[in-house]
Structure formats: structure tokens, C-alpha cells
């Protein structure tokens, strides 16, 4: 049996809608892709609903035209500085007299992990079980059917500001599309570019987009740390416009065409190779720009991004313990030698992650920019309708669905 699912990545620079058929083994057959410039977003967050609605509508309509599929619901990515995450343990006594663990015990354990204080203006986006502990034995992935007295679960909880989440939900719903589930963007990207082996060994996913750098650290197969840093590819371009006094378009062109995160040795005096000639705003007038200066500007910003990434590794407590290293994705991962700079500065393996294993209209998705979009589909294929539950679909709903309905959704989503 095949079902059709849709992912909408509402990014800071582009909105990407992908329609795909999921085959039984989970394989994705891409039926349609609609990529349109984004509007109304700043650093991953909706700041103008009307603009965002227009951009999402254009992207959805394009994907519909290409696929011939009428989009009713979609998995949607969420990001922004308002996101925060924490790890929480839940504990329950096993209920059955013979001490065999049931789904119900697991559900109760996960529920008790959520009994942490979440400030009133925030809501929970994910509660993801990472591992179970049975009578003190750590690292159990699927406890159902095992026997024991005391079941603990380690979960990763992601929350976001209610208003930021509501504005994203509104922007999508106003296009006539209901939301199957909201997925934290780095978790979606991770679905597209990480292997199970990466996650088992210990890996960091880094998605550098236009407005934000989204990170997720996986250890022993589960998610341990997630964070959103408010610096992305746009900052590189803005730096160039300030320092080189070029228009934004020119700066973006220079970055894509000549940019490198490692400036290297300064050129010899009078080195013509170093000079890039570009048109200025005045017709017929040329401006000469030093390639080395261009890359020095980019390197300074790239180093800052790597330092911020390093801070997150330290914050996670897994410094020196991520043998699979960093998987770098997002559009800005394509900046020349960015991976090399990161490898040098952090002393870790770094590879660039691009979505793979797709059939159908897959060619257009062969870029790190589409990790989130493809990952939303993989998330949907793996977890199905998530936490939102039916309450989410009603216009009158208060907040983001009632907790019990959402909790039932989580159970469907994550129980082994
Ligand atoms: N070859 C390249 N070299 C350097 N930067 C690039 C290259 N290609 C794309 N970028 C940059 O990637 C950024 C866009 O990446 P992406 O499409 O992943 O962003 P987004 O998903 O819209 O934004 P976000 O995830 O931050 O909300 C832009 O800043 C763009 O300049
Ligand atoms: Mg993105």
C-alpha cells in the first residue's frame, strides 16, 4: 500500500513543499517539489503572516501543479531562537502482577517525564524517548515484554514560545493546509542525512540555513541535545555588503561564485588573479574586489559560527565523545571549504550531508538546502500523524490541542 505525504519547510530564504509517495519499506518517491523565495520570516520565525501566507501558497501551488496532487495536510518544520530543550527522566512502577512491561507502563513513564515545569507562554513540541532504564539497567531501547519492577525513561523535551508557534501554524492553515505535525527542523534534517550508525556512535547535525544554524546531537541512537543559533548564511552576505559596499545581490553572487571559508595566504602585490571585476550600480562602471579580502570577511564569520557550534557541543557535555563527528547541511554548508575549516578548528570528522535514496523527481532535491524538506517526509513516513491529534484540526481549538489528545499522539508516534 502506498500513501502520499507532504512536507513544507518554511525557511528564512525559501519555502520548499515536497509531495511524495511512501512505499512499504519507507522509500520515498518524489511526486512534486515547489520551491519559492520566502517572505515574512526573520531568523526562522514568522514576523509577517500575510507575507508568509503568500510565500507558502506559492510554494504549495507549485508542488500541487507538478504532482497533480491536492495538498490537504503537511508536516511542517519549526525553528527559531525561541526553541529550547531539556532532558527529563520519568519513573513508574511496573503494573502487571507478573512484572511484564506493557505499552501502558511505557506510556505512563513518558507521561511522568513530562511533569517538568514548562513556563506558561511556552508549549511542548516534542517529547522523545531516548532510552529506558529497567531496575537500574541502562541503555534499553525497547522494554516492552521485558520483566522488572521499576521502569525509567530518558526523554528529550523540546519547547517553543506559544506565539511563535501559533504564528507559524496560522500561516500554514491560512493557505488551506492543515498540519499533520510540527517537527523541529534539525530533527527533520537529521532524518534526511544521518544514518542509524551515526546516531549510535554519536554525531552532531548542523544545518546552516539563511537565518539560523540548527543543531542536534545524537548519542546511543537517540537525541540528546537540540538548539537553534540565530546566525546563518544571510549574515555572511550582509557582512560583505557592509565591508565591500556592494549591493545585496552582488554580495550574494560573490559569496556563491568565489566564496571560501579559508582565506589562505595574502596575494603578492599587484597579483591580478586576486582581483574580481564586477559591475557597479552605475551602468558601465566596474568595481575591483580582492578575492582574498572577500574570503577574509567570510572566514571571520565562518569562525564565529564554528565557535557557536563548539559552545553547543560543550553545553551538551559530549565534547570529545562524538566519534561520527559533524554532518553539515543546509544551503550555507556549500560555502567553499566550510567543512575543512570546521574540521581544522574542532578536530572532528566533518562531512556534508545531502538527501539521498529518493526516486521520482529527486534530482531537484540533490542539495544540502533540502535536508529539512526531505527530512520532514522521512519523519512523517516513520512516525505517522504525530502529536497533534484531531483537536488540532479544528479552528476553534484553544492553544495547540488539548494535552491528552496530543499525548495519545505521542504514544502513537514513539512507542516501540
Ligand atoms: N554555494 C553556496 N555557498 C555559500 N552559501 C550558499 C551557497 N548556496 C546557498 N548558500 C546560502 O545558503 C543560505 C540558504 O540556505 P537554506 O536554503 O538552507 O536556508 P533556509 O532553509 O531558507 O533558512 P533557515 O533554515 O535558516 O530558516 C543562503 O544564505 C545562501 O546564501
Ligand atoms: Mg532551513
Automatic annotation (TrEMBL):
Q: Where in the cell is it found?
A: Cell membrane
- Provide a GO biological process annotation: FtsZ-dependent cytokinesis
Key words of the record: Cell cycle, Cell division, Cell membrane, Membrane
Q: Provide the SHS2 domain boundaries.
A: 5-193
Recorded hits in Gene3D superfamilies, A to Z, give:
3.30.1490.110, 3.30.420.40
First-listed, main subcellular location of the protein, grouped into a coarse class: membrane
A Pfam family the protein falls into: FtsA
Q: Does the keyword Cell cycle apply?
A: yes
Membrane topology qualifier: Peripheral membrane protein
**Gene Ontology cellular-component terms listed:** cell division site; cytoplasmic side of plasma membrane
Record has Membrane as a keyword: yes
Reported function: Cell division protein that is involved in the assembly of the Z ring. May serve as a membrane anchor for the Z ring.
Q: Which protein family is it in? A: Belongs to the FtsA/MreB family.
Please describe the quaternary structure of this protein: Self-interacts. Interacts with FtsZ.
What protein does this entry describe? Cell division protein FtsA
Species of provenance: Candidatus Chloroploca asiatica
Amino acid at each position: 500500500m502506498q500513501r502520499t505525504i507532504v512536507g513544507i519547510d518554511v525557511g528564512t530564504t525559501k519555502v520548499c513543499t515536497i509531495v511524495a509517495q511512501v512505499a512499504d519499506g519507507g522509500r520515498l518517491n518524489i511526486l512534486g517539489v515547489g520551491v519559492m523565495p520566502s517572505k515574512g520570516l526573520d531568523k526562522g520565525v514568522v514576523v509577517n503572516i500575510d507575507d508568509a501566507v503568500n510565500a507558502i501558497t506559492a510554494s504549495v501551488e507549485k508542488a500541487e501543479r507538478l504532482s497533480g496532487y491536492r495538498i490537504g495536510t503537511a508536516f511542517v518544520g519549526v525553528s527559531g531562537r525561541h526553541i529550547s530543550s531539556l532532558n527529563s527522566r520519568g519513573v513508574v512502577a511496573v503494573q502487571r502482577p507478573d512484572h511484564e512491561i506493557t505499552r501502558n507502563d511505557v506510556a505512563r513513564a513518558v507521561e511522568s517525564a513530562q511533569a517538568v515545569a514548562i513556563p506558561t507562554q511556552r508549549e511542548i513540541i516534542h517529547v522523545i524517548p531516548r532510552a529506558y532504564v529497567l531496575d537500574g539497567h541502562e541503555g534499553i531501547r525497547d522494554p516492552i515484554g521485558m520483566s522488572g519492577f521499576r521502569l525509567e525513561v530518558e526523554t528529550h523535551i523540546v519547547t517553543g514560545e506559544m506565539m511563535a508557534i501559533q504564528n507559524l501554524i496560522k500561516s500554514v492553515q491560512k493557505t488551506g493546509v492543515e498540519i499533520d505535525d510540527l517537527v523541529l527542523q534539525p530533527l527533520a534534517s537529521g532524518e534526511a542525512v544521518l544514518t542509524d550508525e551515526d546516531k549510535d556512535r554519536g554525531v552532531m547535525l548542523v544545518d546552516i540555513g539563511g537565518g539560523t544554524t540548527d543543531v542536534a546531537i545524537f548519542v546511543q541512537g537517540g537525541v540528546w541535545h537540540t538548539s537553534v543559533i540565530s546566525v546563518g548564511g544571510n549574515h555572511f552576505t550582509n557582512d560583505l555588503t557592509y565591508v565591500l559596499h556592494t549591493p545585496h545581490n552582488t554580495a550574494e553572487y560573490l559569496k556563491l561564485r568565489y566564496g571560501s571559508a579559508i582565506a589562505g595566504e595574502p596575494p603578492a602585490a599587484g597579483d591580478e588573479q586576486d582581483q574580481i571585476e564586477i559591475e557597479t550600480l552605475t551602468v558601465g562602471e566596474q568595481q575591483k574586489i580582492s578575492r582574498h579580502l572577500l574570503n577574509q570577511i567570510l572566514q571571520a564569520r565562518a569562525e564565529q559560527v564554528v565557535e557557536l557550534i563548539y559552545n553547543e557541543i560543550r553545553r551538551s557535555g559530549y565534547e570529545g565523545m562524538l566519534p561520527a563527528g559533524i554532518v553539515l547541511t543546509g544551503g550555507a554548508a556549500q560555502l567553499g571549504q566550510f567543512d575543512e575549516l570546521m574540521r581544522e578548528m574542532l578536530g572532528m570528522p566533518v562531512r556534508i550531508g545531502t538527501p539521498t535514496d529518493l526516486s521520482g523527481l529527486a534530482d531537484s532535491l540533490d542539495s544540502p538546502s533540502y535536508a529539512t524538506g526531505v527530512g520532514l517526509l522521512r519523519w512523517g513516513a516513520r512516525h505517522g500523524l504525530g502529536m497533534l491529534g484531531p483537536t488540532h484540526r479544528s479552528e476553534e481549538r484553544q492553544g495547540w490541542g488539548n494535552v491528552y489528545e496530543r499525548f495519545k499522539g505521542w504514544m502513537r508516534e514513539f512507542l516501540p
